[in-house]
Amino acid sequence: MLISDADPALLRLINGSQRGFPLLPRPFAALAAGMEPGWSEARLLAALQDAQAAGLLARVGAVFAPNTVGNSTLAAMAAPAERLEEVAAFVSRQREVNHNYRRDHHYNLWFVVAAASSAGVAAALSRIRLATGIPPLDLPLLREYHIDLGFSFLAESAAAAEAPAAADDPGLSAGQRQRLLAALSPGLPLTPRPYQALGAQCALSEAQTLAQIAHWRQQGVIRRFGMVVRHQELGYRANAMWVWRIDDDAERERVALALAAEPAITLCYERPPRPPDWPYQLFTMVHARDAQSLDAALADIRRRHGLERLPQAVLRSTRRYKQTGACYGYA
After folding, report:
1. CA-based Rg of the chain, rounded to a whole angstrom?
2. How many Cα atoms occupy the beta-carbon half-sphere of 66 within 13 Å?
3. Residue 30's closest CA among 204, 195, 211?
4. What average pLDDT does range 212-229 have in this prediction?
5. Residue with the larger pLDDT of the pair 158 and 327
6. CA 315, CA 298: separation in Å to the nearest integer?
7. How many whole angstroms separate alpha carbon 162 and alpha carbon 146?
8. How far apart are CA 322 and CA 192, in angstroms?
């Protein structure tokens, strides 16, 4: 399925449901009721299943704020060209790895590792190093300025999320929360009562499952809860990680705040440098519909903010190996 082949009503629903997905026993029935005549819960579920199978929809579920329910890091490897595919395949097979991309740089493989604890992240990085013989750069998040991977792929903007309602802590044990995290990581099952099915996977009731997700949202642990799209399939076919070396703390913060406000920039955060090979501290991600638009956005932002003089690098994505939800819990 191409985006041009999808039903316009379905695309509008996905576009507007990237945040604030209903926390109701039958959320898909509620969504179908607000669509055009002829849409039912069954028709919507079938359409979403087709969109997921075609790669347009990654999942329906949670995007967690970094290092709230577990621990994560960004890692990079400099894989020899003749071994890149082999190394990338091994990295992608690791349960803790949820994103894995090839970029046009000496450090050509970039991936995110997430686990229940910092020890779990360290163990995954050690396993990768021992198996491949290539030491990964470990670049944990130091400061977040802007993270928002909701993509408005239609002319109208995606609906903004309403402030989550107050939600009491349901009092689940640590083990119950971890099992729910593990069950939630691949997304909600596309069934009429997804929270009931999700809870059944981890010995929780539908009410307990809904209450814990609502509590995580209210706490800000869940950054976004809704449709998670695959940006390349939905028209954002060019992206780059744009990194900066800014040693002065005050100047780095000034630049970060300016970049975080740019519509084309979906991520902006600080990570530690790893000299001498990786001197950059400020990371941004820029997404565009094509390579020409990406280059134009980079040049425009650089010019308007007077950033030409700063040491920087643009690492364009050249292949996506893996994109899934982070798995912080235990299977």
Report:
1. 20
2. 19
3. 195
4. 91
5. 327
6. 12
7. 18
8. 28
**Amino acid, single-letter form, for residue 302:** R
Q: Which two tokens stand for residue 3?
A: 């985006």
Q: Which helix (H) or strand (E) holds 224?
A: strand 222-229
Six token digits for residue 16: 């507007």
Residues 6+ apart with CB under 8 A from 147: 65, 66, 223, 266, 267, 268, 269
Task: Tokens for 212, please give them.
Answer: 């814990």
3-state secondary structure of 300: helix
Task: Evaluate the omega torsion of the peptide bond into residue 276 and state whether it is cis, within 30 degrees of 0.
Answer: yes
- Give the CA-trace dihedral at 125, 128, 129, 134, to 10 degrees: -120
**119 SS3 class:** helix
Q: What are 43's two structure tokens?
A: 């028709």
Beta strand pairing call for 238-244 and 282-288: antiparallel
Per-residue pLDDT of 109-139, as tens digits, reads 999 999 989 999 999 999 999 999 999 999 9
- Taking every pair of C-alpha atoms in the chain, what is the biggest distance, in angstroms? 61
Gap between the Cα atoms of 178 and 201, Å rounded: 12
